[in-house]
Design goal:
The complex is a heterodimer.
Chain A (H helix, E strand, L loop, with lengths): L17 H13 L5 H27 L14 H25 L9 H22 L25 H34 L3 H10 L7 H34 L11 H27 L8 H31 L3 H12 L3 H13 L7 H4 L2 H28 L14 H24 L5 H10 L5
Helix pairs in contact in A: 1-15, 2-14, 3-4, 3-7, 3-8, 3-13, 4-5, 4-14, 5-6, 5-7, 7-8, 8-9, 8-13, 10-11, 11-13
Chain B lengths: L2 E8 L2 H13 L5 E4 L6 H5 L7 H27 L12 H27 L23 E6 L7 H10 L4 E6 L1
Antiparallel strand pairs in B: 1-3, 1-4, 2-3
Helix pairs in contact in B: 3-4
The chains are: A mainly alpha, B alpha+beta.
Chain lengths: 452, 175
């Protein structure tokens, strides 16, 4: 890493020409010769996919009693997994949409897989509220369908808002992602040698021919989609937080929640971007396209989001005290010294303590260390969501009804199963679609004058 | 088989832009350019009209939000009015949340479908694909198309002009 000492490494490293860029990115997909460790990793993820399928089948056949939830804590890992996954998705949209609006050139080589990460994270997130329902096969009751009951959803319920927000988010993310893929699918269509690949990419490319008239409309609409996705991200996670704040449960009922949840989403999302990008750039030797600059910037955004999250922690504790409400205060004290105290302090240590290491440039540009911090923050953010979900109900208004929940194998089976499924989808995505945006990297290379 | 036009291939974007400008100065109007990534300079040279798609996005968003709000209003006021804890039937603040999400969804669909419709995609057959040199396989080739319907079009003259403007290959393409 020669430029580790430079103050601001370039977005792209070295000199590139168009055949080289499209060839390198396209051949990852088209030659199909992926390193052996790729398939080994995919196989391990596939085992976790099987675990997820088994766990879900078990959960549906036995019921939610198979999870560790118990009165009074009836919201458990299903809800914390949901919030965690949705949060991971948000960083992808932030990278692709907000950085596009801000015309940040460094987004070009990481936006594609960040968007894919969003899609798959939302797909995982969508599972959990449904599994949490107890009778998952009735989830469509949340939709205003003309069903035999002749009833309507309760429009005033955050659960219904959630359904609207998540389904909108998934759909808009998919449209945005597909639209960004179109020109690259055309490149793959033209590069593909085998008939099935030509057909596959050809059909998906919709006959894109790169006409100047098309590009003009395409750019305007792509920009508008980004402008739509930005308030959408903020609204989605705010609505997720309203699931909590609408209840008067101590620890849930707080006005800081929407911004605090959005910041938490970005923190965990950027941690996941790094978790994927660091091995990706190493495994496919694209260190000159996804450069240290990208990693450095993502780490900076992580610490920015992390400081807002820390502010959220402080604000939560302060307002619990300032409310003068004995139950709010008791809940906050119990969070720190009660049965969930070890998790609480681990969370603080990882999300607020360990994160501070990222202030140092040397650490931000040390890939193994950055990767370790990203993993730690992922864990820390999962614990944060779990803490928020369980500590409130466990210390409710009736001290005689105080109680805890446990974690069973099923909680972990579904959590790790979903992580494995997420990564399996990421692997399939890398195998089938270009993980780096060809046309934007070419544009960037052209603008930087690094051509030939 | 009728002639669709002449397709000239250029090695780099500057050459394409110069050639497009040159051909425009020579009076050609029915032109199109093809590039692996957007080239903003072409908008002025080819007189690409400002797209009206932003209006489609706005209309899509407002329509979808209004429809969903109307659906909610209909369900609480007309179809199934039920008094829950004395709250007003038409309690707009929570309804706005879903209407907002629906608005974003409608706007995104209007934009996505709008750009496909306006660009005439999907269209799997187009004369430019008949050009031997037309491919994005090697990433960066830049093409200028002069349509045969252009009033200034004279096969040999146009071909010579394109070559003089730096075209690497000039091909006749069938419709």
């Amino acid at each position: 890493m020669t430029e580790a000492s430079a103050s601001s490494p370039a977005v792209l490293r070295g000199r590139h020409d168009f055949p080289e860029i499209s060839g390198r990115i396209g051949s990852i997909v088209l030659s199909g010769r992926l390193p052996r460790h790729f398939w080994t990793a995919f196989f391990l993820c596939f085992l976790l996919v099987l675990l997820l399928l088994y766990s879900i089948t078990y959960l549906i056949s036995v019921g939610v009693g198979g999870l560790g939830i118990n009165m009074p804590v009836v919201w458990g890992t299903m809800i914390s997994n949901f919030v965690w996954w949705i949060g991971i998705g948000h960083a992808g949209t932030l990278i692709s949409a907000v950085l596009l609006l801000l015309r940040q050139p460094w987004r070009a080589s990481i936006n594609r897989f960040a968007e894919a990460m969003t899609l798959f994270a939302v797909a995982m997130a969508g599972l959990f509220p449904i599994l949490h329902l107890g009778r998952p096969w009735f989830f469509y009751w949340l939709l205003p369908l003309p069903n035999v009951h002749m009833h309507w959803p309760q429009w005033r319920s955050p659960l219904v808002w959630d359904f609207a927000a998540i389904s909108t988010y998934a759909t808009v993310s998919l449209l945005f992602w597909y639209m960004g893929l179109l020109p690259d699918l055309a490149v793959l269509r033209d590069r593909a040698r085998s008939r099935p690949a030509q057909l596959f990419y050809g059909i998906l490319a919709l006959g894109w021919r790169g006409s100047a008239f098309h590009w003009a409309r395409y750019q305007v609409v792509y920009f508008l989609l980004a402008a739509l996705a930005t308030p959408l991200v903020v609204s989605v996670h705010s609505i997720v937080s309203l699931d909590f704040t609408f209840a008067i449960t101590p620890g849930y009922h707080s006005t800081i929640f929407p911004p605090y949840f959005v910041a938490g989403a970005l923190l965990s999302g950027f941690a996941m971007v790094l978790t994927i990008a660091i091995p990706l750039r190493w495994a496919f030797s694209v260190e000159d396209l996804i450069t240290v600059r990208h990693m450095d910037n993502a780490a900076k955004l992580m610490i920015a989001a992390g400081m807002v999250v820390a502010y959220g922690y402080v604000s939560e504790a302060f307002f619990a005290w300032y409310s003068g409400e004995p139950y709010e205060r008791a809940m906050m004290v119990q969070r720190a010294i009660g049965p969930y105290a070890p998790l609480f302090w681990t969370m603080l240590g990882l999300n607020c303590g360990l994160l501070q290491l990222l202030w140092f440039r040397r650490i931000r540009r040390n890939m193994p260390l950055l990767f370790a911090i990203a993993i730690a923050v992922n864990i820390g953010m999962w614990i944060e969501r779990y803490i928020i979900v369980v500590t409130g109900p466990s210390r409710d208004y009736l001290p005689s009804a105080w109680g805890e929940q446990s974690l069973t194998w099923l909680d972990f089976g579904i959590l790790f199963g979903s992580i494995g499924t997420f990564f399996a989808l990421i692997f399939l995505f890398i195998r089938i679609l270009p993980a780096i945006t060809i046309f934007e990297v070419e544009e960037l290379a052209e603008e930087e004058g690094k051509l030939r | 088989m009728s002639l669709y036009g002449l397709m000239a291939a250029f090695a780099d974007p500057e050459a394409l832009i110069d050639a497009a400008r040159g051909m425009r100065e020579r009076g050609y109007r029915r032109m199109d350019a093809f590039s692996p990534f957007p080239l903003e300079e072409l908008d002025g040279i080819l007189e690409i009209p400002k797209t009206r798609l932003p209006w489609a996005v706005l209309v899509g968003g407002i329509t979808c939000a209004a429809l969903v709000y109307a659906l909610i209003w209909y369900s609480v006021e007309v179809d199934y009015p039920i008094n829950v804890g004395g709250r007003p039937l038409h309690s707009w603040p929570p309804f706005v949340v879903i209407a907002f999400e629906a608005g974003i969804l409608g706007a995104a669909f209007a934009g996505f479908l709008g750009v496909l419709v306006a660009n005439g995609l999907p269209r799997y057959y187009h004369p430019v694909f008949n050009a031997e040199s037309f491919t994005y396989a090697r990433g960066g080739r830049f093409y200028l198309l002069i349509e045969a319907t252009d009033p200034k079009y004279r096969k040999s003259v146009t071909k010579r002009q394109l070559t003089r403007l730096g075209a690497e290959i000039v091909e006749e393409i069938e419709a």
